[in-house]
Amino acid sequence: MFLVTEDFKTFIKRYPVISIMVGICTILMILTAFSGGYSTANILKLGGYQHDLVNQGEYWRLFTYAFMHGSYAHFFMNMTFMIILGRPLERALGSFRLLVAYLVSALFTGIVMYFTYSSNIVSSGSSGVGYAYLGIYLYIILFRKNLLLTDDRKFILTFLAIGLISSFIIPNSSLIGHIAGMGIGFFITPLLLNKKSKFHHSYYA
Q: Which CATH class is domain 8-192?
């Protein structure tokens, strides 16, 4: 279910939301590279979050931070995260519902950061959205586990455990943002699932 087998054209056709979101993040990464790299100034210039700037009326930063990243490693890790976890969700929920999940989790994670981060912290990255995807999967494992194969459930729980551990041990990792994203994903899942929700496993075309 999580193995990417599509060619580029098929991938874009099947997963338009994931493709667009990864595309936006990639464009920002390229702009960052051509404007001098991942400095604090560049992160903020291209949409990163900072409490004081939001207080000054730049409310869009509660959302745009989710498309900007703090380093090249951060970018590539999150894009891998988004593609692996997002593909099955876009097919199961549909593109519109996945878009809603993306926008809601990004915005509300930004709001949580606003009320918990100190004024001098600069933050960026789509990790909160990625953890929202994990929250969606966790809800499905707990309450709709018939939608997933046993091996897929094991993979998700392993991925979740690794993600939580890394949130504690990786320097500058946003533990609050990760937990907030996961909680938001978990609680909005009942609004996203319907009778047509179905995951396409490896033996499906």
A: mainly alpha
